Amino acid sequence: MAFVEARDLTKHFVIRRGWFARPTVVRALTGVNLEIERRETLGVVGESGCGKSTLGRCLIRLIEPTSGQVLFDGEDVLALHGEELRSLRRRMQIVFQNPFSSLNPRMTVRDIVAEPLKAHTNMRGSELTARVIELLRQVGLNESHLYRYPREFSGGQAQRIAVARALALNPDFIVLDEPTSALDVSVQATVVNLLEELQAELGLTYLFISHDLSVVQHISNRIAVMYLGEIVEMGNAEEIFHSPMHPYTQALLSATPMVDPETRRERIILEGSVPNPANPPSGCHFHTRCPAAMAFCADEKPPLREINGRLVACHLHE
To answer: What are 6-27's pLDDT values in tens digits?
Structure first.
């Protein structure tokens, strides 16, 4: 059994624009199935609005799914309540995209990192401070940062504080929701290296959400490509980058800058914009922009099927 598993996970948001207006249903996730093995990093990529962040938050029950099932180490997360859910939350954490939005500007670093320890443990006083210092050292900071405020740090340092807070309760699974996208390129590498070192040292399991494909390729064991609330391709990271099978994955990778100037990909320009998730196209959701779309793609939705050890949802590979 996989360490983290989603089965037919669905999340709909209902938007009401007025007392007499008909509510609009936004289909953020539609029947997502995935598995994450212990100590693995699963990268999730796709355009803005494809449901990446919603998926991560549903997996740790930060938001409630509309339907489906989430299994964590064999336990049904959605069936837990009260103290059972509180106990499980210690093992699941999240690091958000912008550290300056996720860190309380009125709290010192000590109070920020100590907050989960105060909520879930009996640590207080000098014992609590010692644990905070230990966590700061784990992420490359030190005791001199204890009584500073988030505004006194660079973006990379602030994200390290967010990581320290996520590590406070010794979690097993961490959702990394675009943790490097708000950072300078030179700083991104140091944060990614830190995350890899912590994973090796602590045996962590990651869901790494990003739109930066080069970062995802570097840190991920496997990659799931999402489009309009669905997974359209999933498999080994190197295989997907070297031989993408879904037309959407091919288009995403064609826009990725290559380190080797002699290695070139033919640029694939997708026409139109991402459809409205409140009114998705019939059949294959990607057919309105797909350069290889066939007539029946508009009527028949392709299932996510295994092809040569990879999962792909496309009629081209039937």
So the answer is: 999 999 999 888 777 888 899 9
Radius of gyration of the chain from its Cα atoms, rounded to whole angstroms:
21
The model scores a pTM over 0.85: yes
Using CA atoms of 240, 242, 243, 249 in order, give the dihedral in degrees to the nearest 10.
50
Q: Tell me the backbone φ, ψ of residue 71, rounded to 5 degrees.
A: -110, 130
In a domain, 303, yes or no: yes
Averaged over 268-276, what is the pLDDT?
80
The rounded distance, in Å, linking the Cα atoms of 289 and 94 is 33
Q: Is residue 125 in some structural domain?
A: no
Residue 159 lies in a domain: no
Domain span at residue 205 reads 4-91+171-317
Q: Residue-wise over 21-55: b if at least 16 C-beta within 10 A, else e? A: eeeeebbbbbbbbbbbeeebbbbbbbbebbbbbbb
Crossing angle of helices 109-120 and 125-138, in 10° steps, is 120
190 in a structural domain? yes
Q: Left, alpha or beta for 134 (phi > 0: left; psi -120 to 50: alpha)?
A: alpha
